[in-house]
Amino acid sequence: MTTVRTRFPPSPTGYLHIGSARTALFNYLFARQHGGEFVLRVEDTDRERSTDEAVQVIMDSMEWMGLEYDEGPFFQTQRFDRYREVIDQLLESGHAYRCYCTPEELTAMRETAMANKEKPRYNGYWRDRTDTPPEGIDPVIRFKNPLDGVVVIEDAVKGPITVANAELDDLVIMRSDGTPTYNLCVVVDDIDMAITHVIRGDDHVNNTPRQINIFKALNAPLPVFAHLPMILGEDGKRMSKRHGAVSVMQYAEDGYLREALLNHLVRLGWSHGDQEVFSLEEMKALFSLDGVNKSGAVFDVKKLDWLNQQYIQSASAETLASGLTEQLEKMGLSTASGPDVAVVADLLRDRAKTWLDMAEAAKPFYQAPAEYDAKAVKKQFSAEAGERLQVVHDNLAALSDFSPASVDACLQDTVAQLEVGFGKVGLPLRVALTGNTASPALDQTVSVIGKEAVLQRLVAAVQYCQTL
Ligand code: GLU
């Protein structure tokens, strides 16, 4: 049996689009599930856009997602000789020809077609011409598309799609400057790289009949084609920057877990019953082209957030600690002199949607509040609150055991001693410690921040309250 071989051929554009990431994932999963191979190919023929940085972004994105490829990266710009060889072969076998039309002639051709209410297309002027070519014109090379009959795409997702050859004109396979075009390069690559399954976005479905004709002209076996439904924003329009981040690395920056992003991506156009949460192992075991839906899939940021939260909640202590440390470091916060990151992360895991959220909530564990929230000050701080905080300070200072239970008992005693409700002590205390009134359970927060830092922050808050 032939080995399944899939490919992911992004064009470097400066970022890896979330739709491309989904394509990469599906190709990766399909290859893995069939014990096959997954090839990375960089389609860098647009030399202006294909900078080293843009290529690096692709590599970084693949690495962050953990989509390991078995071969590549291959670069199309390093294969120009091979494309020329194939173009010569097509010329020789009569499947391609030189076209000397000037841009003006092509424009006139299009206008005539439109005036006749026909599709603006090349009319095959040089297809069978044996005239002496005009001087001084660098010709393009066109593929001789069959004139009659139909092309059938046996699409593994959409079912058979039939296109009449009469609908397809003779496409340019080499520009007048000698560079090969996309449709030619892709076919040559897919043949040379022995690709068995072409799984890609349905924005390419119009190219497929043309590519199939080139495969046939080269006597090459056809791969299986599978076109994936478009990714839509929540308003049903094609996913774009208006709907949220479209770059994979932006999700990394924003503190998402790769597992959550991959899980969300796998559900964009693929389903397995009504299961929502899939580990990578499950995806590899369950993925199939049969489960790919025909209709568009909505990228729902809220769902991604929910998934991310699920993954954070169930992450191991190590994953949590390293995720949080990394994010805090990115924010320029040192954890060296503060509490154990694993303890802080565990305290925050139930509330955080992303690493970024968690790191924000973790800040008070590593640094005194730079300022107090104005609303919180208005509600919780006053001269009397300062007096209460002084009592809290003195009572906590007397504790030798700073465990959550001991802190809790101390705070309860303080409330009894002051004859006030718990909020009169707890809320100003939270503001003193974190600058705000939102934090995890107070006894744990106090305990984890640690005695020395807690007492210092209380002194500062008492002083602040005296000025009110
Ligand atoms: N380079 C193309 C793109 O980024 C993909 C071509 C293909 O899958 O055949 O859209």
Properties at a glance:
468 residues, mainly alpha, Rossmann fold, Glutamyl-tRNA Synthetase, domain 3, 4 domains, three-stranded parallel sheet, 19 helices, binds glutamic acid
Describe, in plain words, how this protein is organized in 3D.
The protein is mainly alpha-helical. It has four domains: 123 residues, HUPs (Rossmann fold); 83 residues, Glutamyl-tRNA Synthetase, Domain 3 (Glutamyl-tRNA Synthetase, domain 3), CATH 3.90.800.10; 52 residues; 92 residues, Arc Repressor Mutant, subunit A. It is built from 19 helices and twelve strands. The strands form five sheets. The protein has a three-stranded parallel beta sheet with strand order 1-2-3, with helices on one face. Strands 4-5-8 form a three-stranded antiparallel beta sheet. Strands 6-7 form a two-stranded antiparallel sheet. Helix 1 packs across helix 9 and helix 16 crosses helix 18. The model has no long low-confidence stretch (mean pLDDT 94). Bound molecules: glutamic acid.
